[in-house]
Amino acid sequence: MILEIKVPTVGESINEVTLSRWIKKEGDYVQQDEVLCELESDKATFELNAEKSGVLKPIIPAGEVIKIGTVVCSIDTDAPPPANLPVADVVVTAKAEKQTAPAHASTAVAPTPTTPAGYAVGTPSPSAAKMMAENSLDTVPATGRDGRITKADVINAIKQGHKPVSKEPAQSNSRNSKREKMTSLRKTISKHLVQAKNQTAMLTTFNEVDMKPIMDIRARHKESFQKKHNIGLGFMGFFTKAVCNALSEWPAVNAMIDGDEIIYNNYCDISIAVSTPKGLTTPVIRNAESMTLAEIEMKVAELAKKGRDNKLTLDEMSGGTFTISNGGVFGSLMSTPIINIPQSAILGMHKIQDRPVAIDGQVVIRPMMYLALSYDHRIIDGRESVSFLVRVKEQLENPEQLLVGADPVKLLLDI
Cα separation of 117 and 148, whole Å? Predict the structure, then answer.
């Protein structure tokens, strides 16, 4: 029987996807639920699995843009499996034979089967293939199941000094060029950025924050924090807490325009800008205002890992009421971030740099960071935007305010 595998429906607003790459090749015998290829929509990347076991015949080449419901490949389910079954199938068969064996034979010792070289030998996992390409590695010693190359294998190979594939140096006078189709995700990013520039009255206000108090806290407590929560203590948790507290004071910054109406949100779904191999994505931390700093750090790490591995779901990338972008990880000293529409504002973090500043009449060296708040002037006035950014700065320079969301002394005096 020839089974046709079609592109499934992945969202109400998604009509087409890009077949980014084939993981299996023509003639491979695939097991049921095994990953066949990667599909990329304008919002996320997802995998297409085999519905039945059999021999694969791809129909659509990699790089093609295809409609939902299009037949991508076929599987010949009547084709016999290869003699050299994968280890997992050998183990399952052995267990089945053991359960049906007579009682008097239970003490017999079965010979250990040798694992033949199968179709999976030398095949890297998606994440391993990405790392091999980035480091120009052709082959890597494999330790994964069925002889697969895992991400850990690539990391070990890099540590052990495996040299990249030798490539002929490009001629200095070369004038070659290469043309590639834009991916669905890149098209969507481009469209949203242009819409943000054309449809919003975008303006950016700047401030700077002394990061020494936060850095002192991290230096004192990072080991105990790591030990208790099994996650590193970064900066994003502090910034997210400060932003959520400031949004409660200045709700217009957390609002958005819908036609002739303004939607004010009483919750903080914070979008975190994450750089992935396919482009910039903004997964969302839901109800960040009700989360502890440790919970925020764990969620940020989870979303960042999924982003790097192209595992983010549509639900994880949709929505959001405010965005935080950290260009400082790439060395950016100052920038004007673009609003993530339909949101009304975005906070840009930047590189921490030692600079001379005046404190109590004395010039001292402090680790300073520039902050940039881009906002839609149609809904957010200058007073609100500047006050919001000043509130974020105050909390970061006085971390005790992050706990109660306000100046403890003013809270005590009720002023």
Answer: 11
Answer yes or no: same fold for 1-81 and 201-413: no
Euclidean distance between CA atoms 206 and 372, whole angstroms: 5
Closest by CA to 335, choosing from 364, 307, 300, 370, is: 370
Instruction: Respond yes or no: is residue 377 known to be catalytic.
Output: yes
Average pLDDT over residues 189-199: 88
Half-sphere exposure of 344 (CA within 13 A, CB side): 24
Residue 17, both tokens: 């996807």
In angstroms, rounded to a whole number, what is the distance separating the alpha carbons of residues 142 and 154?
9
> pLDDT over 70 for what percent of the chain?
85
pLDDT band at residue 108, thresholds of 50, 70 and 90? very low
CA atoms within 13 A on the CB side of 405: 13
Q: Structure pTM?
A: 0.67
| Other Cβ atoms within 10 Å of 280 Cβ, number | 15
Verify whether residue 381 is a known catalytic residue.
yes
CA atoms within 13 A on the CB side of 293: 23
Cα 59 from Cα 45, distance rounded (Å): 20
Which class for 346: exposed (0-12), middle (13-18), buried (19 or more C-beta within 10 A)? buried
CATH code of the domain made up of 201-413: 3.30.559.10
Pick the catalytic residue: 162, 350, 381, 407?
Answer: 381
| Helices marked H in 135-267 | 151-159, 184-199, 212-229, 236-249
Q: 1-81: which CATH topology?
A: OB fold (Dihydrolipoamide Acetyltransferase, E2P) (2.40.50)
Q: What residue type is 23 in one-letter code?
A: I
* Amino acid 369: pLDDT: 97
Instruction: Confirm if 324 and 346 have CB atoms less than 8 A apart.
Output: yes
Q: How do residues 365-410 score in pLDDT, each as one tens digit?
A: 999 999 999 999 999 999 999 999 999 999 999 999 988 777 777 7
Instruction: Mean pLDDT check: name the lowest of 76-85, 249-258, 322-331.
Output: 76-85
In the chain, what are the domain boundaries? 1-81, 201-413
Identified catalytic residue from 138, 216, 221, 377? 377
Q: Across the chain, what does the average pLDDT equal?
A: 84
Q: How far is CA 199 from CA 77, 259, 261, 313, 348, in A?
A: 52, 12, 15, 28, 20
